[in-house]
Design a protein that fits this description.
Blueprint: H1 5-17, H2 21-30, H3 32-46, H4 49-60, H5 66-74, H6 78-91, H7 106-114, H8 116-121, H9 126-133, H10 137-148, H11 155-161, H12 164-185, E1 192-195, E2 201-207, E3 210-215, E4 234-240, E5 243-251, E6 253-254, H13 264-276, E7 279-281, E8 289-292, E9 328-330, E10 336-338, H14 345-348, H15 359-362, H16 367-380
Antiparallel strand pairs: 1-2, 2-3, 3-5, 4-5, 6-8, 7-10, 8-9
Helix pairs in contact: 1-3, 4-6, 6-7, 9-10, 11-12
């Protein structure tokens, strides 16, 4: 049967007038997409301002979809929004929403700043609040203190940039890993840092000296372990209900955000060392390397010696080599192959001199140039 806006609007308005809010929210969750236009009409044309304020407050405090909460709040007038925000912190009921999800004017933003811990308490994502107001040192200190005292809010870290399907299937696992790293690093919640999305990783989290990378999958799932990649403490893939997850934990390294501190010779030496082990690194670039802050071994507060198989890697090559603090190391091992791997044929046959990913690669820092140099040097030794 076709969706009838007017019939559905009247039906749901009757639920509202009867005070059957749970029934109303159930209706919304069952047909959110179809309800959008219906509730636009209901909200703007049918309800009084008092009713809109009451309903928006109740909706924010319900378990209805976050997308609908945002839709609802953003259709309020500025004055109505201010009243709803005051209602939320006065009633102290959980709202489970992000400040990024709602449209606010300066008056409302200032109101949130003045009551920052109240809004954190009722469920506004702490990391969103930190990103929005963190330039104010007093507010940042308040949020850090709040976070350090609320262990139950660890999911604010996970949900911040993790896709909803990964969070739904693996949120508990990810939270446990974060807590284990925090224990090892003797870290507080305020020590947990989120960084921008990195390549195929959806979320990159830094906890003092450890880096946790979370993503759907890897381009190169298995390759021989070797001393020239950052040593993984954990490297594991999951597949549950058709939702893939890849998690990796490594040591933090020094990275160059401008990608200009590594010379072509340094990068080539890393490439050459891998080639001498019968491995080929095709995604060459400063963006994929860093400088070790510690020797390239596992640093953990208890014995930890994961096998190559546990790390989902093939047998170790070059086990007698250990890179030292200050050495260049490969961070993103997405494109490392055995030289005899059949998938390499496209790279080895590649002849297009005009194709490069960025300016660095057009300056000779690229797979084709490095491979030709390697083969020249190799032939000269014969």
């Amino acid at each position: 049967m076709a969706f009838n806006v007017y019939e559905e609007t009247n039906k749901r308005y009757e639920l509202f007038k009867d005070g059957n809010y749970n029934g109303l929210f159930d209706e919304i969750d069952n047909d959110y997409n179809g309800l959008k236009e219906s509730f636009k009409s209901l909200f703007i044309r049918t309800m009084t301002s008092f009713e809109r304020i009451k309903y928006a407050t109740l909706a924010l405090q319900s378990n209805v979809q976050k997308a609908f909460k945002s839709f609802l709040f953003n259709y309020l007038t500025s004055e109505e929004k201010s009243i709803v925000l005051n209602n939320i912190i006065t009633e102290q009921k959980q709202v489970n929403i992000s400040i990024d999800d709602v449209v606010l004017d300066n008056h409302q933003m200032n109101f949130i700043k003045e009551h920052i811990t109240d809004f954190a308490t009722v469920g506004f994502n702490i990391y969103d609040l930190k990103e929005t107001f963190g330039t104010n040192s007093d507010i940042l200190n308040q949020l850090n203190a709040f976070f350090d005292n609320h262990q139950d809010r660890i999911n604010d870290v996970v949900v911040k940039r993790t896709p909803s399907d990964i969070y739904k299937e693996y949120g508990e696992i990810i939270s446990l890993i974060i807590m284990d790293i925090m224990k090892n690093e003797n870290a507080s919640f305020s020590d947990v840092k989120l960084v921008e999305k990195d390549g195929q990783h959806s979320t990159v989290i830094i906890i003092k000296d450890k880096v946790l990378k979370i993503g759907y999958d890897r381009s190169t799932k298995r390759f021989p372990n070797n001393p020239y990649i950052i040593t993984p403490l954990l490297r594991k893939s999951f597949n549950k209900n058709n939702v893939k997850l890849f998690i990796e934990v490594t040591e933090r390294v020094m990275v160059d955000d401008d990608y200009n501190s590594y010379s072509a010779d340094e990068l080539y030496l890393l490439y050459k060392n891998l080639r001498d082990l019968g491995l080929v690194w095709t995604d060459i670039g400063s963006r994929n390397v860093g400088r070790l802050l510690k020797d390239n071994v596992i640093h953990w507060n208890r014995e930890l010696h994961p096998s190559d198989e546990v790390l989902e890697l093939e047998q170790m090559r070059g086990e007698d080599v250990v890179l030292k603090a200050g050495d260049l190391v490969l961070l993103d091992a997405d494109y490392i192959y055995d030289e005899n791997d059949s998938t390499l044929k496209d790279y080895l046959a590649y002849e297009d001199d005009d194709y490069y990913y960025d300016d660095e690669e057009s300056d000779g820092i690229n797979f084709k140039s490095f491979e030709e140099r390697y083969q020249r040097e190799k032939s000269m030794k014969r």
